[in-house]
Write a structure and sequence with these properties.
The chain is an alpha/beta fold. Helices cover 33% and strands 18% of the residues. It is built from 23 helices and 27 strands. The chain starts with 9 loop residues before the first strand and ends with a helix.
């Protein structure tokens, strides 16, 4: 597909933006004292140089009570000099237009932890995120917070930002005023829809009056709260129409609240699934509307623009993973893109754990300011890499970029290692982008790739490399219990690769880790109608809604996951585990903790629990009990005296993000 609409210019008020791509504000957690430090500057500088049309910096806290030390503040002048210098530089050196998001969390702010004061909210409704009950805002509090928005907006203009965005989404302060779930007030700011809109509209009017008519002003809204009893796309569109009248020049539409049980950002969300939220609002306003969530595929983004659902496309996590995404798309270098795969391992999981973000597929994220000197001719080393999985490929990429001569050996016919296994479960197919993007970039580098043959000792003797990198991965652990050699006992990896042709109706999966749970989901959804079939049946009235629901839940298999641990799926990231557990529950998968496999029979397994032994019927038994490193080559190479590095799962089985990070780090050190 030609990406035409993505690179058309657009105007927001008087602001001329060169293309339709937006980097929305995202929590980075690069500070612990409200400081906009060099790490932030380097992160944003890198993305501005990548060709994005509008880059929205932030969120930036407008006051102490509504923010947290892990985000920069714009509540005083302490960050002004740094931000102003960065904006001046980027305006000079790039074509990116620069925005800022003004942020107040309302009841979800951890204010008591950092200030000793309670969080502020329209009503004293306990936060599901912090567990604290906020203080219901007085009219004096309302005025003070609105003044804080105004003062922050004035500082933003003085600092050189082109676009000011007020956050009114995700269950934060303004959306708390809008929602009947969190606004229980009986004064002029609560009760009726008109009253619930008042705080947000007053804030917009006061900011507009302060910054003047010519500065572009936007809001970021929830297209649908996705909370039972709260606002839908219809109410959001009505608010946006009033916000336009109040002085807003653009609407940035995202999904629901953080508390929602509807997945927003995981791989379970189909690409472009929430574009309809932007369309519902665009139908009610005459100003530009941005679409968000799962739009990182340039073809999907282009189609959304062509359909008229939105005027601009937000690339958040995609621009974390690939700073040059707009430039590479414009230049047709699609095969070189570092694709975001919506794994959330380095971004959202890190935020939930209180750490600064990184990226599972791009190890340079968060360290953009670090110097990486290229090797000169005297430092160039000859490197053999054994294993073409994510660790080996990343090492080869980084080492070749530094000027070293790299040969990559892979025993299989194709590169990728365990990535095809990881991509096997439902909605995980995007993980193949990791392999494909790395291969595309390797082909642009001076890396010799030898597939279909392992690296041998004879290769090392003949080639005489300076360094051998062992990245030979891992293989499944085989536990020995009576009956484990029976023909109906299979390995989870083989199922996820699609190598198991016969799976019975009664399945027991041994191992409640990520692989075991995802294999259970794969088996539970095997044979269910795909989305295209559901749409056909629904649009043509072939089946009633209850029948369609049943078709999407049950394929006739009875699946049980057993493990000795106390918590199933404990090694799944916090931002995705709940979605996986929700799916397993929906598909009626039984999860058994504190359960140890004792024996495998022809038609059942014997397990032991605190209550004693019992039989669980099974005509297929799936082993998912972990993996062990494969690194025999290390011992074979020891007599040669060559320098050997062991990386990735060959060192210790871990996540693919760890393998990629280690490949990068070790390559920097040779």
């Amino acid at each position: 597909m030609k990406h035409i609409r993505l690179f058309e210019p657009i105007r927001i008020n008087r602001l001329a933006v060169g293309n339709r791509t937006v980097m929305p504000a995202m929590g980075l957690h690069f500070t612990d004292d409200y400081t906009f430090n060099d790490r932030y500057s380097a992160f944003y500088r890198r993305r501005a140089h990548g060709g994005v049309g509008l880059m929205i910096v932030g969120p930036l806290a407008i006051d102490l009570v509504g923010g947290a030390p892990v985000m920069p503040g714009l509540f005083d002048d302490s960050n002004m000099q740094t931000i102003q210098a960065l904006n001046t530089e980027l305006h000079r050196d790039t074509k990116a237009k620069l925005g800022v998001q003004l942020f107040h969390m309302g009841r979800n702010a951890p204010a008591r932890l950092f200030t000793g004061e309670p969080a502020l909210a329209p009503s004293a409704v306990r936060s599901r995120l912090t567990g604290d009950v906020p203080k219901a805002m007085t009219e004096e509090d309302i005025d003070r917070v609105q003044v804080s928005f105004v003062r922050a907006a004035e500082r933003a203009v003085a600092a050189g930002f082109d676009f000011i965005e007020i956050i009114a989404c995700t269950g934060y302060l303004i959306s708390q005023f809008l929602s009947p779930l969190t606004n229980l007030r009986t004064d002029g700011y609560g009760g009726s829809w008109e009253n619930r809109m008042r705080f947000g509209l007053e804030t917009i009017r006061r900011v507009r009056a302060a910054i003047g008519p010519d500065v572009a002003l936007g809001i970021r809204v929830a297209g649908n709260d996705f909370m039972e009893g709260s606002n839908t796309n219809d109410e959001s569109a009505l608010f946006c129409a009033e916000a336009e009248k109040a002085g807003v020049d653009a609407i940035n539409v995202t999904g629901g609240w953080h508390e929602t049980l509807v997945p927003q950002l995981t791989q379970a969300v189909p690409p472009g699934a929430y574009a309809y939220l932007a369309r519902g609002i665009r139908d009610k306003v005459s100003i530009p509307v941005f679409a968000s969530n799962r739009l990182g595929d340039p073809d999907v983004a282009e189609r959304v623009l062509r359909s008229g659902a939105a005027d601009m496309i937000c690339w958040g996590r995609p621009l974390i993973a690939e700073p040059d995404l707009p430039r590479k798309v414009r230049e047709g270098r699609i095969d070189e893109i570092i694709r975001c795969v919506s794994c959330n391992q380095g971004c959202f999981d890190s935020i939930f754990l209180g750490r600064g973000i990184f990226c599972a597929v791009n190890p340079t994220v968060g360290r953009e300011g670090a110097a990486v000197p290229a090797a000169d001719s005297s430092q160039c080393r000859k490197v053999f890499v054994a294993g073409g999985g994510p660790a080996g490929m990343q090492f080869a990429l980084t080492a070749s970029e530094l000027g070293h001569a790299v040969t990559l050996f892979e025993k299989e016919k194709n590169l990728g290692g365990q990535i095809p296994v990881a991509a096997g479960p439902p909605a995980k197919g995007e993980l193949l982008h990791i392999r494909d993007g790395m291969v595309g970039r390797l082909l642009k580098r001076n890396v010799e790739i030898r597939c279909g043959r392992p690296l041998t000792v004879d290769d090392v003797k003949r080639g005489r490399p300076d360094v051998v990198v062992v990245a030979t991965g891992a293989q499944p652990i085989a536990i020995r219990v009576p009956g484990s050699d029976k023909p109906h006992v299979v390995d989870a990896w083989d199922i996820l690769r699609g190598d198991v042709a016969h799976i019975g109706k009664k399945v027991v999966i041994v191992g409640g880790n990520a692989v075991g749970c995802e294999t259970a989901e794969w088996i539970a959804t095997d044979g269910l109608p795909d989305p295209e079939t559901f749409m056909f049946l629904s649009c043509h009235g072939a089946e009633k809604s209850e029948k369609l629901k049943t078709l999407g839940i049950c394929n006739g298999r009875r699946i049980t996951v057993i493990d000795m641990v106390d918590r199933i799926g404990a090694n799944v990231g916090p931002s995705t585990r709940w979605v996986l557990m929700q799916s397993l529950k929906k598909h009626e998968v039984q999860l058994r903790t504190g359960t140890r496999l004792v024996e495998i029979g022809d038609d059942a397994v014997v397990v032991e629990t605190d209550a004693g032994r019992e039989r669980i019927e099974a005509d297929t038994v799936v082993m998912a009990v972990g993996s062990r490193s494969v690194n025999d080559l290390v011992e074979d190479l020891r007599p040669l005296g060559v320098e050997v590095l062991v990386i990735g799962d060959a060192k210790t089985p871990r996540k693919f993000s760890d393998a990629i990070a280690e490949g990068y780090e070790e390559a920097l050190g040779i």
